[in-house]
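Re: that chain you flagged

S.,

Sorry for the slow reply, it's been a week of failed gels. I finally had a moment to sit down with the sequence you sent. For the record, here it is as I used it:
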Amino acid sequence: MMDLSFFLVTIVTVLVLGYFYVKRKYRYWEDRGVPFIKPKFPLGIIGEMGKTQHSSQVFGGAYKELKGKDVFGGIYFFFNPVVLATDLDFLQNILVKDFQYFYDRGVYCNERDDPLSGQLFALSGQRWKTIRTKLSPTFTSGKMKTMHSIIISVANEFQKCLEPIAEKREEIEIKDIFARFTTDVIGNCAFGIECNSIKEPDTEFRRIGKLIFQFTQMEFLRIFFLTLFPGLGKALRLKINKPEVTDFCMKLLRETTEYREKHGIKRNDFLDLLMQIKNTGKIEGDDTDLGKMTFDELAAQIFIFFAAGYETSSSTMTLAFYELAQHQDIKDRAREEVNRVLAKYNGEYTYEACMELKYIDQIIQETLRKYPIVDSLIRVCGQDYAVPGTTHIIEKGTTVMIPIMGFHRDPDIYPDPEKFDPDRFTDDNIKARHPLAWIPFGEGPRICIGMRFGMMQTRIGLAHVLSKYRVRTCSRTPIPLVLDPGSPVISSKGGMWMQLEKV
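Prediction finished late last night. Pasting the structure tokens below so you have them in one place:
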């Protein structure tokens, strides 16, 4: 009886202490005079994310609720207080002016047990700076120009393979088609492998690509947990990447690099550049000593280039055509530009020709404004930070959430934000806005290093489709768009069904 009583007293004590701990944690923003959204026990603001709401809707809704009350508001992930940016000047301080306080993305990284997690997006501190320095020379405009011919070769094949689909005028799921195009582009440029996803949709490359971005709600919560408690995750030797994905990428890269080195094979692709750094610490034609790279470091950078490059660009192309199909005038203007530029360059998609597709770029920019594929950014405060113009202190270790969708659909920044209007991105209109009003690739020292490549392959993909085909809405086109809550990027629930026909 004594043992039972002691057990019950212990349980009650733990529950009471837990109650007061949670209550104290949930008073964090209130005690500091920061406007906040009342948390729901035990997950805070993220309870419905991945289940009934997409992350862009969760954080975009929080932005609307907190905007104008202060330069930032307070939300909670589990029991942890999180800063939610609601002011463009504050945002500029975080990403650019006071970057030294917020250099860490707070993405879980465990290079010991999960080598592919050691990629540039996840690294922090000196490790990030070292790898960024090594990679920067591989993403110059000159290096992009050398990869241009690879993309054009894939795009020409893609254009041909669309012809029988257009002749049948069937209702098709275009996201999968565009993903096969970008998979082949990235497979060629990153792994040096001809994936043939365009012709064979069930290739191993395509299956692995899909697997990278398949998440259950529990996996979403697990990622947030590892983000908030990385030390515990590393102590438990937890991994963020699926074992099947890791095994596939590591095996393929090891075989490919060993084969190239054995036979002296060189290609103008990303893998070739990283192999040069791995073996010599330099890139041919440049005497700068970057320092050598390990195989695991090479593999991690190739992996993120593949994962981010194929998904973001295919999603952008899909959503661009979703809007073009509903706006005939914009579609006609875009096609006219493509035909005019091609005529100037004798029908060839030269690098210079593609760089002249200014209106196509505006369409891409407006697509990413309305549908920022990666809808939010995270930064972690590295040391106590006095917020300029306020009495607030952001404490060391606090997570800062940047709701890109909130800013991009703010009517005070973009009037009539639900309207699709590429003319928002003329040179004059861009100059008239705050410099951080458009941030689909981030900004500052940690801006997406692959932005040029992503824009290039998306531009080429759109131009090749527009010049030969019309994309139309059909009975299964999701109007209005319903976001898939289980997708880590902005994506249509149930796919994007449309109709393709020859011009």
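What I noticed first: The chain has 20 helices and nine strands.

Talk soon,
D.
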